Amino acid sequence: MVEIRTENLRKTFGEIVATDEVNILIEEGELATLLGPSGCGKTTLLRLIAGFYEPDRGKIFFDDKEITNLPPHKRNTGMCFQNYALWPHMSVFDNVAYGLKLKRINNMKYTKIAVERRVNEALSLVHMGDLGHRHIHQLSGGQQQRIALARALVIEPDVLLLDEPLSNLDAKLRIEMREEIIRIHNEMSITTVYVTHDQHEALSISDRVAVMDEGYIQQFDTPQEIYANPQTIFVADFIGQCTFIDGVIKSIDDQITVGIPNNQSVVGQTTIDGYPFETNEEVKVAIRPEDLHLKREGPKDNEIVGKVTRIIYIGNAVEVYFQVGEILAQALLDPDSEIKEGDDIHLFAPMDEVMILPLGGVDALRKVPDHPLALAPAPSSASSDV
Q1: Which stretch of DSSP H or E encloses residue 48?
Q2: What is the tens place of the pLDDT at every residue in 219-255?
Q3: Cα(66)–Cα(77) distance, rounded to whole angstroms?
Q4: What confidence tens digit (pLDDT) does each residue in 186-227 have?
Q5: Which of 45, 80, 157, 371 is the most buried (most CB within 10 A)?
Q6: Where in the sequence is the domain holding 302, given as residue range(s)?
Q7: CATH number at residue 142
Q8: Which residues are within 8 A (CB) of 212 and not within 5 positions of it... i.e. 6 or more apart?
Q9: CA 204 from chain center: how many Å?
Q10: Quick one: 31 and 162 in the same domain?
């Protein structure tokens, strides 16, 4: 197991900035996820760690050893690709054994007996121990994914790298393989970097999640912290559902009072320690739909008034869409709520569930003292799907 650390990583392709100012510390034995939409730079960052790309600037460390310019085969990483990259003409056994046959320890190859033992152990670990004789075309998608995982693990890597490993599987198989990855990680305690665009997947498997957009890591924290205290509008919007209401700061005290449309005000709190909010600053008020209620839960709850525009029944709840000024907001309410389209609706939100977020994303984070992006230069170009 190793600790992975990057310092000010930047990678461009021509004029396209794929990743920039990436400062991240992935702890020994941690399962960290790189999460974001297509083109945000997450796969580029994974390939920088793997050694398939060299950065334009910055450094990469495994523990205290700098490996920035070390070729991939000398980094002792195991890689699972999105398309599995299995050899169709080889048996399952030979696919898994391939890396071992190339690897040398102290300039010596593994013996045939050692290869057989390691391959059988790897196949057993992914519950494929009796299928070593089969060929790849005889396997289902889920079985092929297990073989790709066994091939990555058989070389006993210091770091396991997984590039959207479940994206080609159907919903049921994704859940099954997700649980397998968690099980294997817990058994081996191997430092793992997992790339996905699926927020549910990221939240369910990760020790910590790095949310990326346009090449920048906007937040790196536990799933619980990212959901409860998103630090940018992008993170709040990408992780779960969120209602956003435009507002202007009226006063700043222990809490922040914000004026919103229709001459209303709400009181909430910042999710970013040290952010220098100012009176009269334009902000976004962010509230999770499940934090809006039809009744007060406390005497100081915020009251928000709007007009219902649409109701969607989803079984255990109803999604209620309502208009606040020109803004469409959303609440998640009890399915027995007697609400109709066109009704005026009064909803209540506790102050500690109302998040006040600055405009500007990365540029806003640069204003926070000691933030990894505080001293970074402004973005020079938009990222592409790389």
Answers
A1: helix 42-50
A2: 999 999 999 999 999 999 999 889 899 999 999 998 9
A3: 15
A4: 988 999 999 999 999 999 999 999 999 999 999 999 999 999
A5: 45
A6: 242-359
A7: 3.40.50.300
A8: 34, 35, 36, 40, 41, 42, 45, 218
A9: 10
A10: yes
